[in-house]
Amino acid sequence: MSTYYALTQSEKKTTFSHFTTSNFISLFILNIIILLYTTNACSAPVNTEDKSFIDNFNTNTTGNYTIKNTWTKGGVGSFIYDSTGKRAQVLTGDDVALSFSRNLPVLDKGTFSLDFLPITKYPAGGIIDVYLRQDANNYYWLQNTDGYGAKSLKKVIGGAVVASASFSNQYSQNTNYTITIDFSPGLTTVNAFGQVLTINTNSSSIMVGSFEVESTQQRAYYDNISYKNFNNAPTTLRISQPDGVGDTVTAGSSYNVTYSLGDTDDVVTAAFFYDTNNTGLDGTAITGACAAAPEGTGVTCSWNTTGITPGTYYVYGRTNDGTNPVVSAYSPGVITINASSCTTLFSDNFDTNSTGSYTLTNTWTKGGVGSFVYDSTGKRAQVIVGDDVALKFSRSLPVLGTGTFSIDFRPTVKYPNGGIIDVYLRQDANTYYRLNNSDGYGAGYLKKFVGGAVVDSAVFSSQYSQNTNYTITINFSPGLTTVNAFGQVLTINTNSSSIMVGSFEVESTQQRAYYDTISYAN
After folding, report:
1. 8 A C-beta contact, residue 115 and residue 86
2. CB contact set of 184 (below 8 Å; sequence gap of 6+)
3. 238: which residues sit within 8 A by CB, 6+ positions away?
4. CB 154: neighbour CB atoms within 10 A?
5. pLDDT tens string 47-86
6. Contact assessment for residue 85 and residue 222, using Cβ atoms and an 8 Å cutoff
7. DSSP string across 405-437
8. Strands 335-338 and 248-250: what pairing?
9. What are phi and psi of 496, to 5 degrees?
């Protein structure tokens, strides 16, 4: 059994390794090559069509490439011109590898392709490696073999593989192949050897500035090398629902907008809007899932129609891949939103003094006690508190699992630095909805409590202001609860537990305020 000493150069260091005949071939599977590195400055990309390179070898241009004999145990290779076929040829042999390389205009998005015709492998297998390099540690690497198993496409950042995909088969001798690599930060696709590989799990940029092709124990022809700016495909967007047939909902219900969104070389989302007509793109944004809907074919996003004025509306979408113009599309028909029909089970507009019908609790008395009085001039109730004083008024209600509660709130004086309002819709002490906001202590929230634990919540983006009229509306149900208050809409819909509301409480903490027009309906 013969013994060899092989020289192996990696990105980090050069070492001598001791191998026997039986394990020498496996050395190639571990990529026994001397890599040729060309470093380019990482300038900002300017992807214009003049940043291209083409060589179809109509004349002998082999002298324009940098040649490196990367494995010379069996001799040296050569890079020659085939004048008959007007193409380049790499000649190698057993234990011989050669690479040819060239600098390129710097691009972070582009297309590289070349024709590859392998003709002889030595003795049991041949290997092709194609590198698109930024520098020694950042590059795309395509490798496949005839004899050593199917290989892969890899993306290397900082010397580490950050994304990869594997071929399902090797190549064959005396077969013409075109290898095409469409590269970009978020998505890179290879079409080669009758297969398509895609890597899209890492969005790091590689500023390609050179290519290198290496033939290991593989005699082959190379032709039609092409490198150009990436022709970015436009995004496609189509809305199929609403189409005007049976698209009717009651305000407060959810409607599924059906759409198809796709982009072959970018990851995109669509934002949807509703409009009274199907022109102008001048409608109102739909919040929630339809604000950033993902790609898919015949998929849906849920539109919560709470607070939408009854009427007929077209839906349109807009999407942008960051390269091409914005793409938009209108629905083929309209959705009809009808006014909700409900029965009012309790209301109090304080046309007369009904303050005695409520249960009062002084919940904080460090600075004194509060009072709940009737404002006969404004025909409304008033809570009077002060610094370190809080008062709550409450009332039992008919039990509902789904309903609407609303109240008018006008804060007038906070003590001394901030006021707080809390509204509770209760089943019992441990199961309830709670709305909270303040003027002075930060924006509040909507929370759902079941068994004493918060099971769902949403946060206001701003506080309220003194001497401003607000209507607070809470539409509650097991699967979806929406609050419209303080110029904002909050929605919680991740927990479907039922809360059987049977009372409400309103608490003013260091907040003098008027309250009016209390309503509770199914």
Report:
1. no
2. 108, 109, 110, 230, 265, 266
3. 259, 260, 329
4. 18
5. 434 578 999 999 999 999 999 999 999 999 999 999 999 9
6. no
7. EEEEEEEEEESSS-EEEEEEEESSSSSEEEEEE
8. parallel
9. -105, 15
- The order of strands in the sheet holding 453-459 is 359-364, 390-400, 501-509, 419-426, 432-439, 445-450, 453-459
Tokens linked to 159 = 């010397």
SS3 305: coil
Alpha-carbon distance 252 to 258, whole Å? 19
Peptide bond into 242 cis (omega under 30): yes
Among residues 322, 329, 239, the alpha carbon closest in space to that of 281 is found at 329
Residue 486 — left, alpha, or beta (φ > 0 → left; ψ -120 to 50 → alpha)? left
**pTM exceeds 0.70, yes or no:** no
Residues 117, 94 contacting (CB under 8 angstroms): no
Q: Which residue has the tokens 């710097």?
A: 106
The tens digit of pLDDT for each residue in 338-362 reads 887 668 899 999 999 999 999 999 9
- The pair of structure tokens assigned to 293 is 């809907």
Rg (CA), the chain: 35
- The answer on pLDDT for 24 being more than 70 is no
Beta bridge pairs of residue 140: 132, 155
